[in-house]
Amino acid sequence: MERHLPRLHGSALRRLPGAADPVEDLLQLLKEGTPMSTADAASLKRRYDEVSPKYDQGGPNAMAIKLFWLTYEHLTWKPVEALLPRDGTSWRVLDAGGGGGKFGTRFAEAGHHVTVLDISPGMLEGARAQFGVKGLLDRVTFVEGNVAALDLPDAAFDLVFCEGDPVSYCLDAYPSAVKELVRVAKPGAPVVLGVDNRYEAFSGALKMGRPEEAFRTLQDGRTTCPYGLPVHAFTVRELEQAVAAAGAELLEIFGKPVMFFDMLKAMAAARGGSSDKPWDAWAAREEILAMQEKLAHEGFAVLGQHFQVMARRRA
Hints:
It is built from twelve helices and nine strands. By secondary structure, it is of the alpha/beta class.
């Protein structure tokens, strides 16, 4: 559904020729969001219809954040890919909040049938275009719907994937959303959720000079996405409780990416970058991906930009 821009105060990415400061650009994007006190289906649908034509096309400094999203997508996909059958079996996959088609097309390319569900018709059209370009329309069904009230049968899917923070948009109704996502999974089937991290939202607000907002977020988890919509940022305990109450077994919660820009800053210093010859982070991307993959699964979840929840519906 939606990718949150990283909340940053420093960057080890070298500036591209002619580009503005990537950190300042990102902060400005975040500051331009218009806060909303409530989130409802109509507001969410309307906002994503508005942004759908340019969704996943990057911002004014797309190249500067390319490495961040490369890492984010790598960390998201690798543990999910490991769950998929290797014997040619075709699974039924629910990509809930999957408008845009970024991950849905990956499932289809692997031979699975994907149901892409999104609250925004505009986002679904974006997904349809992606599947069409790749010749995958015979492997997808598009459904307009709300993750908190799925009009889908029980135990219908071999894997449920809900990435891009749809559950965070449900605000106080997030327990219902988690229950719905588990309900439509077959017994024993994986359920994968991507949500906002409260510590990251809190520290991001502080870095942007919004201490009062940071304190409110710390207390109740309420924050705002770059598109001006309210979201719920989670604690690990909230996720543990929601997954258990939904009838699923929690396998892992990890952060993605973890300490990303601080790590790049440290790597730049260690590699001897200078103002005359900046360290080229993009050239070192394979090393960065390997380090992030290791850190993400070594107990640094709370220091991740987002949480990824790996669970399984109880048999």
